[in-house]
Amino acid sequence: MADIGKWVEVLAEAERRREPIGPITEGDPTLDLDAAYDVQRARIAQRLAQGERIVGAKLGLTSKAKQVAMGIDTPIFGVLTDAMQLDAATPLPLGELIHPRAEPEIAFVLGEDLSGPGVTAHDVIDAASGVCAAIEVIDSRYVDFRFTLADVVADNTSAARFVLGTTLVDPRSVDLTLLGVVVETDGVVSDTAAGAAVLGHPATAVALLANQMGAWGEHLPRGATVLSGGLTNAVAVASGHHLTMSFAHLGQIFLRSG
Ligand code: 0L1
Ligand code: MG
Questions:
Q1: Is the pLDDT of residue 106 over 90?
Q2: In angstroms, how far is the first alpha carbon of the chain from the final one?
Q3: Is the pLDDT at 88 greater than 90, yes or no?
Q4: Which residues contact 226 (CB under 8 A, 6 or more apart)?
Q5: Protein residue closest via CA to atom 6 of ligand 1
Q6: How far apart are CA 39 and CA 147, in angstroms?
Q7: Whose CA, among 49, 129, 179, 240, lies 20 to 30 Å from 16?
Q8: Is any ligand 1 atom within 6 A of the Cβ of residue 62?
Q9: 178, 194 Cβ separation under 8 angstroms
């Protein structure tokens, strides 16, 4: 049986020291998906004990672009804390990160609780007080972002930082499947996508999470922010980079590296 406490410490230390590790599963094949979510929960509990607060949740690997890039085709779930949220004006603190990458996402802000099972994309849209643009900055604690499904789940799905746009839009007023995004690094377009890239509809991703949480005896609370998953593959963020992510209807978010 996987030693949950040991892997929490190993991942926390990798993050603190900014020294990535090899995949846990290479040394410990007993780390299955259930054990990996246990590691994730225990690492979040450690963060809460250190004063952080849960502000939402995230999905990963919900688009083909990401699944193909990472070689894993199963959507995964992680937790967002207040310490991960960056103000749009604050440069990305490269000195605190290992090898950050950024990806555009559609974020849902919940106006009501969502409790699975049986949650549909329509329920998600009804429960949302709005959707906004988001940039998620992922930063795997594994060397070269090389991991199995269980490894990346244990690592809280590479969650590191996120930035939210300031325009909150009623999801009933726009067709989220057609909501386009353009990603630019230093003025050069690197990726484009539309909302349908995320499981056909980003609300479907949030429903998937709500239903999984229901199976765990948990729920998504009112007020939570949910990142529905990268619409495009993630782009590396290096010193001096200036990223612009422009979303139809939701506005632009800029990310500068510090
Ligand atoms: O948010 C994400 O899609 C991250 C999922 C984990 C895979 C990765 O690190 O790219
Ligand atoms: Mg993401």
A1: yes
A2: 42
A3: no
A4: 56, 57, 58, 59, 107, 108, 110, 206, 209, 220
A5: 157
A6: 15
A7: 240
A8: no
A9: yes
156 lines ligand 1 (CB under 6 A): no
Give the pLDDT confidence score for residue 154 in this predicted structure: 98
Per the structure block, which two tokens stand in for 209?
A: 């999470």
Cis peptide bond prior to 117, omega within 30° of 0:
yes
pTM above 0.85, yes or no: yes
Q: What is the mean pLDDT of the chain?
A: 97
State the pLDDT at residue 108: 98
For ligand 1, atom 2: residue with the closest CA: 60
Name which residue sits closest to atom 3 of ligand 1, judged by CA. Answer: 60
Name the pairing type of β-strands 225-227 and 54-60.
Answer: parallel
**Buried (b) or exposed (e) across 130-160, using 16+ Cβ within 10 A?**
bbbbbbbbbbbbbeebebbbbbbbbbbbbbb
Which two three-digit tokens encode residue 71? 């070689």
Q: What's the pLDDT at 258?
A: 78
The response to whether residue 159 sits with its C-beta less than 6 Å from ligand 1 reads: no
Q: Mind listing the pLDDT tens digit for each residue in 163-214?
A: 999 999 999 999 999 999 999 999 999 999 999 999 999 999 999 999 999 9
Strands, E assignment, 82-166: 85-86, 101-110, 128-138, 159-164
Distance 232 CA to ligand 2 centre (A): 9
For residue 210, give the 3-state DSSP assignment: helix
Strand-pairing partners, residue 227, are 58, 107
Statement: residue 147 has pLDDT above 90? yes
